[in-house]
Amino acid sequence: MQVNWVIGARAAMMALAALACCHWPLVAQMPALQPVDAFSNSGTVTIDGKPQKYKVEHLPASSFPMLPPAVAVELNRRECLIPQTYEAHGPENVIHGSFKHAGETDWAVLCSVHGTVSLLVFFEGAAETPAVVSSAPETARLQLNNSTGEFGFDWGIDVASPEQVHEAQLDMRRRPPRLDHDAVASSIIDGETTYRFFNGSIWTILDTSD
C-alpha cells in the first residue's frame, strides 16, 4: 500500500456569528452549525490510484491519568494527540516498561502533531528531551478497516519483555542471548512487529530472523 497524496485536514474550529444589522429572514436561512470532533483526523487519500476515505481517532494526554505529570505536561506543550488504531477497544499507544535499564520505569507514547506521528520515549518519566525513536506521516500508517469500509490507523506499540523477544527469535539459527530489559514492540495490524531496543547508547532494531 502506498499513499501518494493527502487531501483534508484536522477539523479544529467551530464559529458562531451574530450580525445585529441583518434582517431576521436572512438569519433564518443560515444553515445550522454542525458539531466538530476535535480529536478526529479525516479526509481522502489516493491509494493505488483510487481516492479512499480515512479517519483516525485520537485521545488527549488527559485520557491517560497514569502518565507522570511532567510527561503529560510535555505532551500538552508539544500539542500531542495519541492516535488510536481502528481496532482499539480502550485507550492505547501509551505504555511503560524498563526500556533503558532493568528495574526502572520509562514511558513510550505515540504523539501525533500536525499529521506526523512520532514514537517518543521518556526515560524514568523525565520530560526533558524525550528520545524520538521513529516518525512517519499519519497517512502513511493507514489500513483498510473492513467493518467500516474506511481506512484507519494501523500502528500500535506495546511492551516487549526479554522473554517475548527471545520467543520471537526462536527460529533464528544463531539465536541471540536473552535481553536484560524490555524493548518496544512496534506493530502493524495484521502485519509485521518490529522490536526497538535501547542498548545503552542508541536505539536499534532487533533481528528476529536470519
Kindly describe this structure.
The chain is globular and about 45 Å long. The chain is mostly beta strands and 210 residues long. The two termini are 25 Å apart. The protein has helices spanning 24-28, 69-77, 162-168, and strands spanning 3-7, 40-47, 50-59, 82-84, 94-97, 106-113, 116-122, 131-137, 142-145, 150-153, 155-160, 183-188, 193-198, 203-205. The chain is built from 3 helices and 14 strands. The protein has a domain at 36-156.
Rg result: 21 Å
**Helicity, as a percent range:** 10-25%
Biggest sheet, spatial arrangement of strands: 1-2-3-4
Biggest β-sheet strands, sense, barrel: 4 strands, antiparallel
Shape: globular
Order of helices and strands: EHEEHEEEEEEEEHEEE
Q: How many helix segments?
A: 3
Class from secondary-structure proportions: mainly beta
State the separation between the terminal residues, measured CA to CA. 25 Å
Overall pLDDT = 85
**Count of β-strands:** 14
Spans of at least 5 consecutive residues whose pLDDT stays below 50 are 1-36
Topology:
Layout: E1 3-7, H1 24-28, E2 40-47, E3 50-59, H2 69-77, E4 82-84, E5 94-97, E6 106-113, E7 116-122, E8 131-137, E9 142-145, E10 150-153, E11 155-160, H3 162-168, E12 183-188, E13 193-198, E14 203-205
Characteristic terms for this protein:
mainly beta, 39% strand, disordered N terminus, four-stranded antiparallel β-sheet, 3 helices, globular, 210 residues
